Structures are given as structure tokens and as C-alpha cells.
Amino acid sequence: MRRAGTACDYGEMGAMQLTRRELVVLREVVETYIQRGEAVASTQVACSPRVGLSPATVRSVMAGLEDQGLLSRRHPSAGCTPTDLCFRVYVDSVVRNCPLPARRRHRLATRLAGLRRDLVEDLGWVAHLVAESTDEAGVAVRPLDEQSSVRAISLIGLGGARVLGVVVMADGTVIKRVVVLREELSERSLQEMANFLTHAIAGRGLANAVDELERGAGSAAELAAGGDRALEVARLLLAQSDDEAEVLVAGAEHLLAANDFSGVERFRSLVGVLENRRRIVREWRRILEDERTQVIIGRESDVTASGNLGMVATLFYRDGRPAGALGVVGPRRMDYRRIVPVVEYIGGRLTKMLEEPGAEHA
Predict the structure, then answer these.
(1) Are 243 and 186 in contact (CB under 8 A)?
(2) Are 190 and 229 in contact (CB under 8 A)?
(3) 63, 87, 96, 264: least buried by Cβ within 10 Å?
């Protein structure tokens, strides 16, 4: 997760080198705002038993946080609301390494055991489980690793020169695409070509499979329905696109019920984000390139900026490589301290399911 800081209980210093007193007040403002969705007054912060500061001290600290761009207010006498930067400091300093409570962990483990399905065929239940466990919109995506390797290829004649190509990836993803060849091929020729392509490409990633095939094609390719035709099918079948990613969204009703999206424009932005699934894939590939878990807040991304949104995403793995990702899309003021550990736990359990012997048929 893109973050800094140390401990779960307030931490010793945040990403902006805040004092402990500043971080205590910042956390109280953020968590009160998350709970109520309204500007937070200094009197509310001073009344919290977790703060332990006088009202005058709280007012002074909040004024300092406002000067640093962490809090904002509509007019001098109003309460304060956290800025995107404030949420970032909160996530980096407070949310990091917060453990999932034992009771919630046991509940999720039980649910995962009961819902365990064949991940090759069914990813939808993952999005539903995330939505159910976080009360936000759950998202599941695969493949996320553009280098995911090919396991097998099948070719099925559809009549004339039309052929259904089926590519099974090592991470369990199944890519189906109808291609049109220059001429009709017999079932035997299609089978021979599929066998050749599987043998030649299996274990290679989509990004370089065709290049590897072109370098290795020769006499063996000529024996398998012709090297030119095999390369033709490979180019058509293995062309990459964000559209090929499987994207499941569940629990959007949680967002529609939130006060954050009661305005017409914000509602339109929310719907636009959830409907543009290619955009989600691109953004998650970008933010998860270097780290397993990421939190994106408001204007930190074009995807979340216009809709006043936040995103939490984490990877799950197979054979040590990213097999996909899961996470949530929600309001900017979502309860990150509760949600991040849930998302990370489900991602970790999915990894174990995929790496256990026979997991793909469980």
C-alpha cells in the first residue's frame, strides 16, 4: 500500500512529520467525519476521551492542520472537513498494519470455506463477498498481470472460415474470441493447429507469445496445418486488450444509498466509474504495479476525482505471480481502517486457495 508511518494506534509520526498531538487530533477529525459525514467542530474533538486535550489546545492544533492543507472549512465559524491530503496522512499513519479483528477474521474464513468454488469458472462470488464484508461496491478483476502465461489453446470450427478460439491462462482466466481465417479448415486441421499452438506457446505470456512463436516457427509449424496459418490464428487470438479482463462488480446499491452520492452530478460520476470497467482495469494495473495493496483517495486519480470516491485494491496470486485483483470502490470517506484489513485478508485467502493442490477444482 502506498503509505508511510508506523503503528496502528495513532503512530509515532505521519507522512508529513506530524507531532503525536497533531496526529491524535487528525485521526479524531477523520474518524468523526467518516462516521457522521459532516464538518467536525473543535468542541467535538475536545470531548473525545481518546484525545485528552483542552478545547483551546484542540482549536490551536486544528488551526495548524488547516494551515498545512490537511483540513478545510467553508467559513471561519464552520467546522472542518478532511482534505484528500488529510485522508492520505491518516491512511499512511493509522491504517497501516491494522490487524483484522479475530472475530471478523473467523467469520470471513468461515464464509470463504462455504463459498469455495472453481475460480476458473466463477469469480463473481469474490466481488459479492467483498461487497458483503465492507458495505461498499465490491470489485474483482482478472487477469491483472499482463504477463499471465498461456496454459492451453482450443480451436472450434463455427462454419465457413469462422473459428472459436479458447485460451486458458495459468491464472484460471478463460479468453474466448471468434476469429475469421482466410479459408475454412477441417476439424482435424484445427485440432492439429491447436495442439501445435499449445505446445509452442504454453508457459509464455500473452505479451510475448506471438513473438516467441514467430522466432520458433519452422518445420514443426509446417507439420501443424502450416506455419503461416498457425501464426495467423495466434495473432488474431492473442491480441491483448483491456476488454479481455474479467471485471465483476457487486453491491453498487451500497453506494447509491450513501449520502455522499445524493447529488445528481456525483451520482452520474459514480455510475460512470462503475460502468467503465476498462478504466478500472487500467487504473488497477497502474496502481498495483509495484505493491500488493493500494489505497487511492479523491484527486489522487482521475478515476476517483470527479465522483468524490476512494478505492482500495489488492492482488491475489497464483504460482507467485498476480492472478487478479479485488477491492472496493466507495465514497472518499469510507472506513479505511475497517475496510483495508478485510480486503487484504480476502486477497490472502484467495492466494492460498489457488496455490493449494487441487484448488482450481475445489
Answers:
(1) no
(2) no
(3) 264
Helix, strand or coil for residue 179? strand
Q: Are residues 288 and 213 in the same domain?
A: no
Q: Quick one: which H or E segment has residue 115? A: helix 102-115
Query: For residue 277, what is the domain's CATH number?
Result: 3.30.450.40
Residues 255 and 222 occupy one common structural domain? no
CA terminus-to-terminus distance, the chain: 30
The answer to whether residues 249 and 137 touch, using CB atoms and an 8 Å cutoff, is yes
Q: Domain boundary at 239, 272, 303, which?
A: 239
Is residue 329 a contact partner of residue 309, using CB atoms and an 8 Å limit?
yes
Nearest to 346 by CA among 277, 282, 293, 278: 293
Question: What pLDDT is recorded for position 6?
Answer: 33
Which domain, by its residues, includes 186? Answer: 150-239
SS (H, E, C) 6-65: CCCCCCCCCCCCCCHHHHHHHHHHHHHHHHHCCCECHHHHHHCCCCCCCHHHHHHHHHHH
Is residue 282 domain-resident? Answer: yes
Whole-angstrom distance, CA of residue 311 vs CA of residue 60:
32
Structure confidence at residue 185 (pLDDT): 85
How does pLDDT run across 205-245, given as a tens digit for each residue? 665 666 667 666 544 444 444 566 777 788 777 765 555 67
Residue 182 · residue 215 · CB < 8 Å: no
Bridge partners of 127? none
State yes or no: pLDDT of 273 exceeds 70. Answer: yes
